[in-house]
TrEMBL record:
Mg(2+) binds at N7, E35, D152, N154, D248, H249. The record marks N154 as: Transition state stabilizer. This is Exodeoxyribonuclease III. Residues 4-249 form the Endonuclease/exonuclease/phosphatase domain. The gene is xth.
Length: 262
C-alpha cells in the first residue's frame, strides 16, 4: 500500500501544473494534500478533473483562500473527522483524521509560527496545536493501534534537515522549542519514517520560491510521515519526490504492508 502526502500550495493552482498526471502516475492508494486554499464549494471543476475513482474529502478554513486539507483515497474510509475539539484550531481547517480498518491516518497542515511580521509570534499557537493533536491520538497509540501522521509539519527536526541550519536557529521552523516538540513525539514512540531508511544529508521537501534556490537544493525537510510503533512494523519504504514540481513543496510518502489496515 502506498500513502503519499503533498503540500500543493493551492489545489486550483497545482491542477494547472500537472497534478492529475502526477496522481495517475503515482499509483498511490491514499493521498493527503495540504494548503488546499479553497472552500469545498469552489473545488467543483477541480474535483471533476481528478476523476471519480477516488474517495474525496476536504476540510476548509473559515478564512477564504487559507490553509485547508484534503484526502483522496482508493480505499473506503470507515470515518473521517476534522475536529480536535478546539474552536481556534478547527477554524483553520488543518486536520483530517481517517480510519481505515485498524489504521488511523492523520492528514495535517501544521501552523507556521512566523506570524504576520515574521516575529515568531505564532509559535505558541503552533506548539499548542502540536500538543493537542498528540493528545487526540494518544489513546489510540497506547492501545497499540497503527497510526500514521503525515503532512507539512512546518519544522525541520535536525541540522541535517535543512541546508543552512546555523543561519536559521532563530527562524520559525528551526527554533529550539519547535524542534523539542518534534523530539517529544519521537521520544513517545513515533518514528520519522524517512530517517528510518535514509540517514544522509541533502534531502529536502520545501524550497523558497526565490529564483535558483530549488535548483541549488537550498531547502528544508519539513514534510513528514510519522509512524507509531504499531504502524512502524509494517513499513516497507519511505521516500521524498523532489523531482515533482508544481508547488514549493514536494510529495513525501511511505509504502506499507496491506496488513496495516487489518
Amino acid at each position: 500500500m502506498k500513502i503519499v502526502s503533498w503540500n500543493v500550495n493551492g489545489l486550483r493552482s497545482v491542477l494547472g501544473k500537472g497534478f492529475c498526471t502526477w496522481l495517475a502516475e503515482e499509483r498511490a492508494d491514499i493521498v493527503g494534500i495540504q494548503e488546499v486554499r479553497a472552500q469545498e464549494a469552489q473545488l467543483g471543476p477541480c474535483l471533476e478533473s481528478i476523476g471519480g475513482a477516488w474517495l474525496r474529502a476536504f476540510s476548509s478554513a473559515e478564512r477564504p483562500g487559507y490553509s485547508g486539507v484534503g484526502l483522496l483515497s482508493r480505499l473506503p474510509a470507515d470515518r473521517v473527522t476534522t475536529s480536535m475539539k478546539d474552536a481556534a484550531f478547527d477554524a483553520e481547517g488543518r486536520v483530517q483524521i481517517a480510519r481505515f480498518g485498524r489504521l488511523t491516518l492523520a492528514n495535517v497542515y501544521f501552523p507556521n509560527g512566523s506570524g504576520q511580521n515574521r516575529d515568531n509570534s505564532r509559535i505558541p499557537f503552533k506548539l499548542a496545536f502540536y500538543r493537542r493533536l498528540f493528545d487526540v491520538l494518544e489513546p489510540r497509540k497506547r492501545r497499540g493501534d497503527p497510526i500514521l501522521v503525515m503532512g507539512d509539519f512546518n519544522t525541520a527536526h535536525r541540522e541535517i534537515d535543512l541546508a543552512r541550519p546555523k543561519e536559521n536557529v532563530k527562524t520559525s521552523g528551526f527554533t529550539s522549542e519547535e524542534r523539542e516538540e518534534l523530539d517529544r513525539w519521537i521520544r513517545a514512540g513515533y518514528v520519522d519514517t524517512f530517517r528510518a531508511f535514509e540517514s544522509g544529508p541533502g534531502h529536502y521537501s520545501w524550497w523558497s520560491q526565490r529564483f535558483g534556490v530549488r535548483a541549488k537544493n537550498v531547502g528544508w525537510r519539513i514534510d513528514y510521515v510519522l509512524a507509531s510503533e504499531g504502524a512502524a512494523k509494517h513499513l516497507k519504504r519511505a521516500f521524498l519526490s523532489p523531482h515533482v514540481t508544481g508547488s514549493d513543496h514536494c510529495p513525501v510518502g511511505v509504502e506499507v504492508e496491506d496488513a496495516i489496515v487489518g
